[in-house]
What does this fold into?
Amino acid sequence: MAEDPIHQFQISRLIPIEIGGLDFSFTNSSLFMVATVVTAGAFLYLTTSSRGLVPSRTQSVSEMSYEFVANMLRDATGPQGMRFFPLVFSLFMFILVANMFGMVPYFFTVTSHLIVTFALAMIVMLTLVGYGLKTHGARFFKLFVPHGVPGVLVPLVASIEVISFLSRPISLSVRLFANMLAGHITLKVFAGFVTTLSGLGAFGVIGAVLPLLLTIAITGLEFLVSFLQAYVFAVLTCMYLNDAVHPEH
Amino acid sequence: MFVTPGYAQETAPAEGELQTEIVHEEGHGEAGFPPFDTSTYPSQLLWLAITFGLFYLFLQKVVLPRIGNILEVRRDRIAHDLDQAARNKEEADAAVAAYEQELADARAKAHGIAQTAQDAAKADAEAERKSVEADLERKLVEAERRIATVREAAMKDVGTIAEETAGAIVEALIDRKPDDAAVAAAVGQVR
It folds into this structure.
């Protein structure tokens, strides 16, 4: 059981709730969503509570993450895009903290489930389409007709643009999901080698050194990936939201 | 490829375990891979909506305005301090300029005083010289007048002497005492 790399993604019900035949139970996934949100929220809230003019270390962590996301969004969308700042910042913090929680042994990784990452991607896409249509109306569809395309090619180019637009939520969600899933499986498999080989006597223990070193290295890599995927998600969100702000380009 | 053996390993003995954990009627093969088990989707979506929604609202209403405010206050404070520094520098520059100005004034004044003193000394010397010259002039005039008086007196004496001498000469020549008035007229005529 301990060596099964898929087991860590199992969802188990902690408090069974069923409404209208659907299972809305409070699960281990829900528990870690709550933990993620509470941890991130409490950290941001408590570290900034002193409102220090000269920030403490933890306060500067909160300020740095604020400015990091703010600069990212401003660079991608310009000042008009700053209305999306709470959304982008929430997404970044949520994914980052959820990923980091996933790195703790025996903890559940919320973002290793496709439905969660897909839901987050759909929040972005619905915001994009909703805001784009509201502010630009029909001009929003110029998004699918790039500037300066010859008339004959417009249907072709437009259909390609539509397909690429529709594949955005999929690529956005699958990228995060697959990275987290694959990383955790790899980690589990290599760690599994260590226990299996070391159970085979002295020769096995020597053989287990290599997978152990690999496990350590991959752990470091996974921390990087955890941050990087949160960053990539946020950056792509910014770039997509730029289309809502400036559809004609 | 590492996944497959693990997966295979799981599906065989863990059928019962899966049933208890995922709990759903669709116990086919797909359900073995948790992320694709659709029966857990409603729960995940609901709890994601609740947690992420609250997180979003909390950040939007409380945390982000607060951090934004902290950063803004700091930016203002730094700008204000820079302004203050610039103002102080301006004041220092002004003080230096005033000092230089005062120094230049003092120098000019000192020069003026020296000039005045020099002029006064020169004027004094000039006046002294003039009074001395005037004095000398006066003494000269007086001396000249005395000389003239003396000479006049002498000249008058010369006339008397000449008359007396002429009378004596004439007496000696003609043995007769000439008339004084005639002698005097004759001498006066010669002179």
User: Anything to note?
Assistant: The longest helix of chain B spans residues 41-174. Chain B is about 85% helix and 0% strand. Residues 1-31 of chain B have pLDDT under 50 and may be disordered.
